[in-house]
Design a protein that fits this description.
By secondary structure, the protein is α/β, with parallel strands linked by helices. 55% of the residues lie in helices and 9% in strands. The strands form 2 sheets. Strands 3-2-1-4-5 form a 5-stranded parallel β-sheet, with helices on both faces.
Length: 435
């Protein structure tokens, strides 16, 4: 069962960037989600024991944020030995910033919170290590409104955390309320009369259909990440990986589709005369033809190693999903002394840890169960180096990619390539807030 209840701990140092009057929009979104039928309940909590003045500040938000007046449990947090020395230094109790970071992490651990909202360097620098080794998600305040939206979107409840008072039909949520998507739509409506019907329709399909599909896929990846972590904190077991993988693959399909779609737009607008099947973001024929009509476009994409390398990575992500075994996110693990124990040694441990199965099941049933029991025990003893990664084994250089931690980067890079094409082909001007 997917949870409809979430808890986030907010660093009191974020208060200076929030407002009770007028109300910070994401707080309004939390209230609207709670009123939905059925409700999506997002509880926000904040410690007031860091500073004597924090209690008065938190009191302004008492309708939205629960005050935690004292540490819960023993109030201690023990940093994994697998952290780098740099990150361990940031989280040292010998530093004031480290003390506050440890207190927030202890609260998150005690409450099994779905995230900690903070802009503190002590928490942001090791955020991926905290997620991998402690299942604690650290979210910068600027990114938190999107996570509020994600909690609702996964349950088909679409409420904007930027403009929560607007009622927009679900099928138009991204087109109207995502700033980048809305900027693209406004631009398209202005330039459409100046374009050929074919080019205008290709751009309409990209902006109104495929781009929102990408944003939705990204948000559903995030939603099932939240849900999977929520289960893991309570059961020590990973669940819902298939749903994360499904939406991640969908993200790559539509990202590659949009990139190729841009080449069709360029082919028509520049009059390159290529057949559609010769237009591809990775196609030599296409870029050779572009060089004769729009050399600046070719240079902006093909001669920027950062852009060109990202396109190559998207090729590595998308093509296996279309043609062979899919690259699905998993854990990167290494052996420990326990995981290397022999089957006989593990079997003896299992008998001591939980003797009941060995007493109630028949011999034939036990013989069928024991190999799986040993395998599961050994898997739990492996050391997790990273989570949500894919192993790419291509012809040139195998590599490991942090796929789940890269989805926002991938959308940002797609936006950059999209802007390059539109600027070079149509003198498009990206909005400073959406570029």
């Amino acid at each position: 069962m997917l949870t409809r209840e979430f808890l986030f701990i907010i660093d009191p140092r974020c208060l200076h960037r929030m407002s009770a009057f007028p109300l910070t929009p994401f707080l309004g979104a939390v209230a609207r989600l709670a009123e939905a039928q059925p409700a999506v309940k997002i509880q926000l909590a904040m410690p007031s024991f860091f500073d004597a003045k924090d209690a008065a500040r938190v009191r302004q938000y008492r309708l939205f944020i629960r005050d935690i007046a004292a540490p819960l449990g023993d109030g201690k947090f023990y940093v994994s030995k697998d952290f780098s020395s740099k990150h361990r230094g940031l989280l040292s109790a010998a530093r004031e910033g480290g003390q506050k970071a440890l207190a927030l992490l202890a609260l998150a651990q005690a409450t099994k919170a779905d995230g900690v909202v903070s802009d503190a360097r002590e928490l942001l620098a090791p955020r991926y290590s905290l997620l991998a080794h402690h299942r604690i998600r650290v979210i910068p305040l600027d990114e938190f409104p999107r996570w509020i939206e994600v909690c609702g979107i996964g349950h088909s409840t679409f409420v904007s955390a930027v403009d929560p008072n607007r009622n927009i039909p679900e099928e138009l949520f991204y087109q109207w309320l995502d700033r980048k998507n809305r900027h693209l739509i406004d631009w398209h409506s202005r330039v459409r009369p100046q374009l050929s019907p074919e080019t205008a329709e290709e751009l309409r399909s990209i902006i109104y259909n495929r781009y929102p599909f990408i944003l939705y896929s990204r948000d559903m990846v995030r939603f099932f990440e939240l849900q999977s972590d929520h289960v893991a904190r309570r059961t020590e077991r990973r669940r819902l990986g298939s749903f994360v993988g499904f939406h991640l693959v969908n993200l790559y399909f539509h990202t590659w589709g949009l990139l190729d779609h841009l080449t069709l737009v360029a082919n028509r607008h520049l009059g390159l005369g290529l057949a559609d099947n010769r237009c591809s973001i990775a196609g030599d024929d296409f870029w050779a033809a572009v060089s004769t009509r729009a050399l600046a476009l070719r240079k902006a994409v093909k001669q920027q190693s950062r852009v060109n390398d990202w396109i190559a990575v998207m090729s590595d992500m998308r093509h296996p999903a279309a043609h062979k075994a899919m690259l699905l996110p998993t854990q990167l693990v290494s052996h420990t002394p326990e995981s290397r124990l022999s089957d006989a040694e593990v079997l003896e441990i299992l008998k001591k840890e939980d003797p009941e199965p060995f007493e109630i099941f028949e011999k034939d049933a036990l013989e069928a169960m024991i190999p799986l029991m040993i395998s599961n025990w050994r898997w739990r003893k492996l050391k997790v180096m990273a989570d949500g990664v894919v192993y790419v084994h291509n012809s040139s250089r195998p590599y490991v990619r942090p796929a789940l931690n890269s989805v926002d980067h991938d959308v940002a890079m797609l936006n950059e390539v999209l802007d390059i094409f539109l600027m070079e082909l149509f003198a498009y001007t990206p909005s400073p807030s959406t570029a």
